[in-house]
Amino acid sequence: MTASIGCSSGLHDVATAGVDQAITDISAYEEAAREAMRPVAAWPGPVGGPPAQPGVKIMWIACGFAAEGCKGPAEAAADAADALGWELRVVDGQLDPRIYNRAVSEAVDQGYDAVVLNAISVDAVAGAVQRARAAGVVVGSWDSGNNPSPSGVSFEVDQPIAQQGHNMVNYMVWKSGGNTKAYVTEAPEFNVVRGWIQGAREALETCDTCEIVREDKFTATEAATRVPTLMVSALRENPQINTVIGAYDAALLSALPSIRGAGFHRVRVGGFNGIAPWLQLIRDGQANVTSAVPMKWGAWAAFDNVNRLLAGEEIPLQNLPTRLIATENIAEIPQQGQWEGDLDYAAEYRRIWSAS
């Protein structure tokens, strides 16, 4: 049983209600974290829709294959396109806005029906996307945190962004006994990362005895070089830090060995995404937690949205789930690959698309 020792309130997102609820003691942080660690039990997405539209050409632009969070959805896009019978081109964006823009322009020039951006801010491709929309191309995005508009993306696949940050902090407050002293890092080039971290900040503000000791920002290209040194320096300069909340799992992969190698074995380290290497580090007792979304499921959801728009129908909420994966429940997660959402999402979409 966990004692109440100083946090006056916390955050607990209830997915079905879509609201935050006040938490009044430490045991409630634990309860909220444990709820977030439970498996997804029922299909939350659409139950009907149009059959697969014929003769579609679609381009999938990934932020960069160097990051598993971008490569995995691209692989899933190939499976979804095959299920729909669509012609697909996948572009490795290599974390380079010049490649993103060139690919969108090529999609317009080559008569593509749709483009999906994966973990790419529409601001980085604003002119090219505006041209695509004017040409009648459906432009969607997944894991990008974009806001749909007439000249921007046609849709952004919905995911509970703030809730992922809340879940992370609920876990850290519980495990620290209400004494979370956090080092928070952010990668502002990714909209969803900003959303996760803002959710974490909001949750930490509910705990009177918790605080953010230090915050740093970095770019994706610095993840393997600057970030390990940055994090070790932050921990050495601020010995009160007992919690690291990283911008996303892949950015922590190089830093974690440096953190542990520098002797910071009791500092809890958590990230976001649920990629396979980070899950393995949790299994190995090196990492502590990740706040995950099923990234491959998101690719199928994006294709479902495209199919609906091409059929002249409105898109529904896809209601992608999130799950907190930590030391306590890592044994429930399959050994290989990213977390995929606990359900056979592909079968659900195939059923919808095969409807006559």
From TrEMBL:
It comes from the Bacteria. Pfam families: Peripla_BP_4 (PF13407). CDD domains: PBP1_ABC_sugar_binding-like. InterPro entries: Peripla_BP_I (IPR028082), SBP_2_dom (IPR025997). Residues 74-314 form the Periplasmic binding protein domain. It is found in: Cell envelope. SUPFAM superfamilies: Periplasmic binding protein-like I (SSF53822). Its main location: other. Gene3D superfamilies: 3.40.50.2300. Keywords: Signal. Belongs to the bacterial solute-binding protein 2 family. This is Sugar ABC transporter substrate-binding protein.
